[in-house]
Amino acid sequence: MPPSDTLPFDLRALEIFLAVCDAGTMAQAARRLSLTQPAISQAIADMERRIGIALFDRRARPLALTAAGGALRQRASALLSEARQIAPLLREAEHARLPLLRAGLVDSLARALMAPLAGRLDEMAEQVSLLSGLTASHAGALLTRQLDLLVGADELDEIEGLERWPLLSEPYILLLPEAAPAPIRAGDLAELARQTPLVRFSARSKTGMEIERHLRRLRLDLPRRLEFDTPYGVSASVAAGAGFAITTPLCLLEAGVPLAGLACHPLPGPSLTRHLTLIARRQELGRLPREVAAFCRERLAAQQEAVRALVGEKLAAEFRVEG
Q: Which pTM does this prediction carry?
Protein backbone atom coordinates (compact mmCIF):
# COMPACT_ATOMS: atom_id res chain seq x y z
CA MET A 1 0.00 0.00 0.00
CA PRO A 2 1.14 3.58 -0.59
CA PRO A 3 2.01 5.80 2.40
CA SER A 4 -1.05 7.11 4.23
CA ASP A 5 -0.36 10.71 3.11
CA THR A 6 -0.21 9.75 -0.59
CA LEU A 7 -3.38 10.28 -2.66
CA PRO A 8 -4.58 6.86 -3.91
CA PHE A 9 -6.03 8.27 -7.14
CA ASP A 10 -6.25 11.40 -9.27
CA LEU A 11 -9.27 13.11 -10.77
CA ARG A 12 -8.90 11.29 -14.10
CA ALA A 13 -9.01 7.94 -12.29
CA LEU A 14 -12.18 9.02 -10.49
CA GLU A 15 -13.71 9.99 -13.81
CA ILE A 16 -12.94 6.51 -15.18
CA PHE A 17 -14.31 4.86 -12.03
CA LEU A 18 -17.61 6.75 -12.31
CA ALA A 19 -17.89 5.95 -16.01
CA VAL A 20 -17.63 2.22 -15.20
CA CYS A 21 -20.21 2.62 -12.45
CA ASP A 22 -22.65 4.31 -14.85
CA ALA A 23 -22.00 2.02 -17.84
CA GLY A 24 -22.03 -1.27 -15.94
CA THR A 25 -19.15 -2.70 -18.01
CA MET A 26 -15.58 -1.63 -18.66
CA ALA A 27 -16.08 -2.06 -22.40
CA GLN A 28 -18.99 0.40 -22.46
CA ALA A 29 -17.08 2.85 -20.24
CA ALA A 30 -14.15 2.67 -22.66
CA ARG A 31 -16.41 3.62 -25.57
CA ARG A 32 -17.87 6.57 -23.65
CA LEU A 33 -14.41 7.92 -22.78
CA SER A 34 -12.81 7.07 -26.15
CA LEU A 35 -10.27 4.82 -24.44
CA THR A 36 -9.36 1.16 -24.87
CA GLN A 37 -10.82 -1.47 -22.56
CA PRO A 38 -7.34 -2.49 -21.33
CA ALA A 39 -6.70 1.16 -20.35
CA ILE A 40 -9.93 1.22 -18.34
CA SER A 41 -9.16 -2.11 -16.68
CA GLN A 42 -5.63 -0.96 -15.81
CA ALA A 43 -6.85 2.31 -14.29
CA ILE A 44 -9.37 0.50 -12.06
CA ALA A 45 -6.81 -2.12 -11.07
CA ASP A 46 -4.30 0.62 -10.15
CA MET A 47 -6.90 2.35 -7.96
CA GLU A 48 -7.74 -0.87 -6.16
CA ARG A 49 -4.06 -1.67 -5.68
CA ARG A 50 -3.28 1.77 -4.28
CA ILE A 51 -6.32 1.78 -1.99
CA GLY A 52 -5.84 -1.85 -1.02
CA ILE A 53 -9.55 -2.68 -1.40
CA ALA A 54 -11.63 -4.11 -4.26
CA LEU A 55 -14.11 -1.59 -5.68
CA PHE A 56 -16.02 -3.95 -7.99
CA ASP A 57 -17.35 -7.48 -7.62
CA ARG A 58 -16.20 -8.92 -10.93
CA ARG A 59 -18.27 -12.10 -10.47
CA ALA A 60 -21.46 -10.12 -11.06
CA ARG A 61 -22.79 -9.14 -14.49
CA PRO A 62 -23.09 -6.26 -14.98
CA LEU A 63 -20.32 -5.27 -12.60
CA ALA A 64 -21.50 -4.67 -9.07
CA LEU A 65 -19.91 -2.29 -6.59
CA THR A 66 -18.51 -3.55 -3.32
CA ALA A 67 -19.40 -1.67 -0.14
CA ALA A 68 -16.15 0.29 -0.48
CA GLY A 69 -16.93 1.02 -4.13
CA GLY A 70 -20.36 2.33 -3.21
CA ALA A 71 -18.89 4.68 -0.61
CA LEU A 72 -16.32 5.95 -3.11
CA ARG A 73 -19.01 6.52 -5.77
CA GLN A 74 -20.90 8.88 -3.45
CA ARG A 75 -17.84 10.96 -2.69
CA ALA A 76 -16.33 10.80 -6.17
CA SER A 77 -19.35 12.49 -7.73
CA ALA A 78 -19.06 15.43 -5.30
CA LEU A 79 -15.28 15.70 -5.83
CA LEU A 80 -15.57 15.79 -9.62
CA SER A 81 -18.40 18.30 -9.46
CA GLU A 82 -16.24 20.60 -7.31
CA ALA A 83 -13.24 20.12 -9.59
CA ARG A 84 -15.25 21.07 -12.67
CA GLN A 85 -16.12 24.39 -11.03
CA ILE A 86 -12.49 25.38 -10.50
CA ALA A 87 -11.70 26.60 -14.03
CA PRO A 88 -14.83 28.84 -14.26
CA LEU A 89 -14.08 30.23 -10.79
CA LEU A 90 -10.50 31.01 -11.77
CA ARG A 91 -11.67 32.76 -14.92
CA GLU A 92 -14.06 34.85 -12.84
CA ALA A 93 -11.36 35.62 -10.26
CA GLU A 94 -9.07 36.91 -13.01
CA HIS A 95 -11.52 39.77 -13.60
CA ALA A 96 -13.06 40.06 -10.13
CA ARG A 97 -12.71 43.01 -7.76
CA LEU A 98 -10.88 42.46 -4.49
CA PRO A 99 -13.01 42.82 -1.35
CA LEU A 100 -10.49 45.27 0.22
CA LEU A 101 -7.37 47.05 -1.03
CA ARG A 102 -5.22 49.13 1.34
CA ALA A 103 -2.47 51.39 0.03
CA GLY A 104 -0.03 53.86 1.57
CA LEU A 105 1.17 56.92 -0.33
CA VAL A 106 4.15 59.05 0.66
CA ASP A 107 2.78 62.49 1.54
CA SER A 108 4.86 64.30 -1.10
CA LEU A 109 2.73 62.57 -3.76
CA ALA A 110 -0.67 63.34 -2.25
CA ARG A 111 -1.44 66.29 -4.56
CA ALA A 112 -0.12 64.51 -7.67
CA LEU A 113 -1.53 61.02 -7.08
CA MET A 114 -4.07 60.78 -4.24
CA ALA A 115 -7.31 61.46 -6.13
CA PRO A 116 -6.48 59.67 -9.41
CA LEU A 117 -4.99 56.67 -7.59
CA ALA A 118 -8.07 56.40 -5.39
CA GLY A 119 -10.21 56.29 -8.52
CA ARG A 120 -8.06 53.58 -10.10
CA LEU A 121 -8.03 51.42 -6.96
CA ASP A 122 -11.79 51.82 -6.66
CA GLU A 123 -12.08 50.01 -10.00
CA MET A 124 -10.09 47.11 -8.56
CA ALA A 125 -11.68 46.62 -5.14
CA GLU A 126 -15.03 46.81 -3.37
CA GLN A 127 -13.47 48.85 -0.56
CA VAL A 128 -10.36 51.04 -0.74
CA SER A 129 -8.25 52.56 2.03
CA LEU A 130 -5.63 55.06 0.82
CA LEU A 131 -3.43 56.63 3.47
CA SER A 132 -0.93 59.47 3.16
CA GLY A 133 2.09 59.75 5.42
CA LEU A 134 5.75 58.92 5.94
CA THR A 135 7.27 56.04 3.98
CA ALA A 136 8.69 54.49 7.16
CA SER A 137 5.22 54.20 8.71
CA HIS A 138 3.79 52.69 5.54
CA ALA A 139 6.69 50.22 5.29
CA GLY A 140 5.95 48.91 8.79
CA ALA A 141 2.27 48.59 7.93
CA LEU A 142 3.07 46.67 4.72
CA LEU A 143 5.31 44.21 6.56
CA THR A 144 2.67 43.62 9.27
CA ARG A 145 -0.05 43.16 6.60
CA GLN A 146 -1.95 46.30 7.50
CA LEU A 147 -1.29 47.58 3.95
CA ASP A 148 -1.26 45.75 0.62
CA LEU A 149 0.71 48.32 -1.40
CA LEU A 150 2.89 51.32 -0.74
CA VAL A 151 4.22 54.08 -2.94
CA GLY A 152 7.20 55.60 -1.22
CA ALA A 153 10.74 56.94 -1.26
CA ASP A 154 12.38 53.77 0.10
CA GLU A 155 12.91 50.59 -1.96
CA LEU A 156 13.25 48.46 1.24
CA ASP A 157 16.14 46.61 -0.40
CA GLU A 158 17.02 44.82 2.82
CA ILE A 159 13.60 43.14 3.06
CA GLU A 160 13.02 39.85 1.22
CA GLY A 161 9.71 38.68 -0.20
CA LEU A 162 8.74 41.99 -1.82
CA GLU A 163 8.22 43.04 -5.42
CA ARG A 164 9.34 46.52 -6.44
CA TRP A 165 8.15 48.64 -9.37
CA PRO A 166 10.24 51.81 -9.97
CA LEU A 167 8.11 54.86 -10.72
CA LEU A 168 10.21 58.01 -10.89
CA SER A 169 13.51 59.66 -10.05
CA GLU A 170 13.90 63.35 -9.33
CA PRO A 171 16.79 65.58 -8.26
CA TYR A 172 17.23 67.18 -4.88
CA ILE A 173 17.41 70.94 -5.40
CA LEU A 174 17.96 74.12 -3.42
CA LEU A 175 15.07 76.43 -2.56
CA LEU A 176 16.50 79.89 -1.72
CA PRO A 177 15.32 83.43 -1.18
CA GLU A 178 15.56 85.07 -4.59
CA ALA A 179 18.14 87.57 -3.37
CA ALA A 180 20.48 84.91 -1.96
CA PRO A 181 23.47 83.99 -4.17
CA ALA A 182 23.29 80.45 -5.52
CA PRO A 183 26.07 78.25 -4.06
CA ILE A 184 28.54 77.03 -6.68
CA ARG A 185 30.45 74.44 -4.64
CA ALA A 186 29.22 72.04 -1.96
CA GLY A 187 31.31 73.91 0.63
CA ASP A 188 29.36 77.09 -0.13
CA LEU A 189 26.38 75.54 1.69
CA ALA A 190 28.18 76.09 5.00
CA GLU A 191 28.57 79.80 4.24
CA LEU A 192 24.93 80.00 3.14
CA ALA A 193 23.84 78.33 6.40
CA ARG A 194 25.76 80.99 8.39
CA GLN A 195 23.69 83.67 6.67
CA THR A 196 20.31 81.94 6.72
CA PRO A 197 19.33 78.62 8.41
CA LEU A 198 18.69 75.34 6.65
CA VAL A 199 15.01 74.40 7.03
CA ARG A 200 15.12 70.63 7.28
CA PHE A 201 12.89 67.70 6.54
CA SER A 202 12.51 65.66 9.72
CA ALA A 203 14.92 62.76 10.13
CA ARG A 204 11.81 60.59 10.61
CA SER A 205 11.19 60.94 6.86
CA LYS A 206 13.15 59.10 4.17
CA THR A 207 13.73 62.43 2.41
CA GLY A 208 15.16 63.92 5.59
CA MET A 209 17.42 60.91 6.15
CA GLU A 210 18.78 61.06 2.60
CA ILE A 211 19.56 64.77 2.92
CA GLU A 212 21.33 64.28 6.25
CA ARG A 213 23.35 61.38 4.84
CA HIS A 214 24.37 63.55 1.88
CA LEU A 215 25.47 66.40 4.14
CA ARG A 216 27.58 63.99 6.23
CA ARG A 217 29.28 62.70 3.07
CA LEU A 218 30.17 66.31 2.27
CA ARG A 219 31.43 66.74 5.86
CA LEU A 220 28.96 69.55 6.42
CA ASP A 221 27.57 70.01 9.92
CA LEU A 222 24.91 72.67 9.40
CA PRO A 223 23.14 74.18 12.42
CA ARG A 224 19.74 72.73 13.28
CA ARG A 225 16.94 75.25 13.69
CA LEU A 226 13.69 74.17 12.05
CA GLU A 227 12.52 70.81 10.74
CA PHE A 228 9.20 69.50 9.46
CA ASP A 229 7.57 66.22 8.53
CA THR A 230 5.72 67.65 5.55
CA PRO A 231 6.74 69.35 2.29
CA TYR A 232 4.32 72.15 3.07
CA GLY A 233 6.01 72.96 6.37
CA VAL A 234 9.45 73.17 4.72
CA SER A 235 8.37 75.26 1.70
CA ALA A 236 6.08 77.56 3.66
CA SER A 237 8.85 78.34 6.15
CA VAL A 238 11.27 79.22 3.36
CA ALA A 239 8.57 81.37 1.73
CA ALA A 240 8.11 83.13 5.10
CA GLY A 241 11.82 84.01 5.18
CA ALA A 242 12.88 81.43 7.77
CA GLY A 243 15.83 80.10 5.73
CA PHE A 244 16.63 77.88 2.74
CA ALA A 245 15.84 74.25 2.02
CA ILE A 246 17.04 71.16 0.20
CA THR A 247 13.91 69.71 -1.40
CA THR A 248 12.62 68.09 -4.62
CA PRO A 249 10.31 69.22 -7.45
CA LEU A 250 7.46 66.95 -6.29
CA CYS A 251 7.84 68.17 -2.71
CA LEU A 252 7.48 71.74 -4.00
CA LEU A 253 4.47 70.74 -6.07
CA GLU A 254 2.89 69.03 -3.08
CA ALA A 255 3.45 72.07 -0.84
CA GLY A 256 1.51 74.33 -3.20
CA VAL A 257 3.22 77.39 -1.75
CA PRO A 258 3.56 80.47 -4.03
CA LEU A 259 7.23 80.79 -4.92
CA ALA A 260 7.23 84.55 -5.45
CA GLY A 261 10.50 85.89 -4.01
CA LEU A 262 12.08 82.41 -4.09
CA ALA A 263 14.39 80.67 -6.56
CA CYS A 264 15.24 77.03 -7.36
CA HIS A 265 18.86 76.06 -8.03
CA PRO A 266 20.78 72.83 -8.58
CA LEU A 267 22.25 71.26 -5.47
CA PRO A 268 26.00 72.01 -5.63
CA GLY A 269 28.52 69.21 -5.48
CA PRO A 270 27.67 65.53 -6.06
CA SER A 271 24.17 64.96 -7.37
CA LEU A 272 21.50 63.59 -5.06
CA THR A 273 18.44 61.82 -6.45
CA ARG A 274 15.20 60.70 -4.86
CA HIS A 275 13.65 57.46 -6.16
CA LEU A 276 9.95 56.66 -5.82
CA THR A 277 8.85 53.03 -5.93
CA LEU A 278 5.67 50.97 -5.66
CA ILE A 279 6.15 47.98 -3.35
CA ALA A 280 3.92 44.97 -2.62
CA ARG A 281 4.37 41.55 -1.05
CA ARG A 282 5.64 39.21 -3.76
CA GLN A 283 3.09 37.22 -5.78
CA GLU A 284 0.11 38.00 -3.56
CA LEU A 285 -1.82 40.36 -5.83
CA GLY A 286 -1.11 38.92 -9.27
CA ARG A 287 -0.88 41.58 -11.99
CA LEU A 288 -2.38 44.31 -9.81
CA PRO A 289 0.91 45.89 -8.57
CA ARG A 290 2.26 46.07 -12.12
CA GLU A 291 -0.97 47.65 -13.38
CA VAL A 292 -1.06 50.17 -10.52
CA ALA A 293 2.61 51.05 -11.12
CA ALA A 294 1.90 51.69 -14.81
CA PHE A 295 -1.02 53.93 -13.84
CA CYS A 296 1.15 55.88 -11.37
CA ARG A 297 3.86 56.41 -13.99
CA GLU A 298 1.27 57.72 -16.43
CA ARG A 299 -0.08 60.20 -13.87
CA LEU A 300 3.40 61.31 -12.80
CA ALA A 301 4.43 61.85 -16.42
CA ALA A 302 1.45 64.20 -16.70
CA GLN A 303 3.05 66.34 -13.94
CA GLN A 304 6.19 67.12 -15.95
CA GLU A 305 4.82 70.36 -17.38
CA ALA A 306 3.85 71.57 -13.91
CA VAL A 307 7.33 70.65 -12.64
CA ARG A 308 8.94 72.53 -15.53
CA ALA A 309 6.92 75.65 -14.74
CA LEU A 310 7.86 75.37 -11.07
CA VAL A 311 11.60 74.70 -11.13
CA GLY A 312 12.68 75.60 -14.66
CA GLU A 313 13.75 73.67 -17.73
CA LYS A 314 17.21 72.69 -16.48
CA LEU A 315 16.09 71.11 -13.22
CA ALA A 316 13.00 69.55 -14.80
CA ALA A 317 15.26 67.69 -17.24
CA GLU A 318 16.38 65.48 -14.34
CA PHE A 319 12.77 64.63 -13.43
CA ARG A 320 12.41 61.16 -15.01
CA VAL A 321 9.47 58.78 -15.02
CA GLU A 322 10.68 55.17 -15.21
CA GLY A 323 9.84 52.85 -18.09
A: 0.70
